[in-house]
Amino acid sequence: MRKFLVIFLALIVIFSFAKTKLTFWGFMMNDEHAKKVLEKFMAENPDIEVEYVQLSWSNGFDKIVTAIAGGEDLDVVELGNTWVANFAERKALENMDNFYKTYGNNYVGWDTVYYEGSYWAVPWLLGTRALFYNLDLFDKAGLDPENPPKTWEELYNAAKDIDSLGEDIYGFGMPAGENYSPWQQWFLPAVWGTGGDIISEDGKRALLTSCKVNETAKFYKALSKYSLKTKQADLAKAFGEGKIGMYVSGAWDIDYLETNYPELPFNVVFIPKPASWYGTHASFAGAEVLAIMKHSKHKKEAQKLVEFLIKPDIAMEVAMIWPAIFPSHVDAGKDPWFEDHPMHKVFYEQNAYAKPVPPIPAWPKVQAVLTEAIEKIILEDADVDSVLFEYNMKIQKILDGE
């Protein structure tokens, strides 16, 4: 009897101190940052232990796919918002509709995690693009640095004037020669700015031959005549060297330019809209989102972790690791940090006009075709109507599952 009592008491001690172990796979935090943030969570939740695994953007998607296929235990995973539809289609994500009902009004970016009538993740950190412009080149071209372009026409005219300053000077920087930036930085957002899209809302029809896409493509081709067309990183370097008047990029280039080209006079403004009376300052909505995996055995604890990570102060602490993305909480812009970082504040406010890619599982294939079409127009001087017709059929075949 005594032996049984000792064993019984030992079991009580073991179970009273047992902790639920969560796995959290992410991209934004390295091991050092994750330890600092997650120690706070574990101090508030002593019955939960979190194991963090850092992924890289080069192979993170494939690692998650492999883990799911192999039945590996995953609880919370940070995803890029363009992946949500793909993983939701695989039935790998827990439905977050109830989470949205509780927190929806306090956070923005929910359209980045919406697919087929439900929410499949929680917007955590939002990033977008804005227009960088060189104050000196504006002044030399007879333009007003205090009145940067607000419309396509104003941007086109400014690019033309700056481009005329010399052989090594370009009015605009247009990304080319890589997978994402040709459509992401401005072409597709420019389409969105007209109120158009390249895929129908139900995800079944390709719309490259629509009037609004055609309008955008012809403007883009005209602008390309006064543009340096190369990889995004090379555009940033050329801008820093004073060779480009304007280009579209993310907030990460603020720190890059200030560090590497401290004498460069530049500013950041909203992306121009089609006309003063028409369209919006649309930009690409990038987002780091938090998903609870469908087969997690600890969904209650996983939700606690998500609730902790999206708190404005915690999210801001993570965002400051690399200030190119900002918390999704509606009051994040009130953080005192923005008072000393007005250009970063532009990006935070630009998020109000940002839009995510169409929520379709086939988007990775579609974006590759879209990039090819854009580069054919701006690099090969191909006929816009012919290119849009040809690539509209290619995208339609992808949508049809061919």
From TrEMBL:
The lineage, from the top, is: Bacteria, Thermotogati, Thermotogota, Thermotogae, Thermotogales
Membrane-spanning parts: none
Classification via InterPro entries: Bact_solute-bd_prot1, SBP
Query: Could you tell me which SUPFAM superfamilies the record lists for this protein?
Result: Periplasmic binding protein-like II (SSF53850)
Protein name, as recorded = ABC transporter substrate-binding protein
Please give the superkingdom of this protein's source: Bacteria
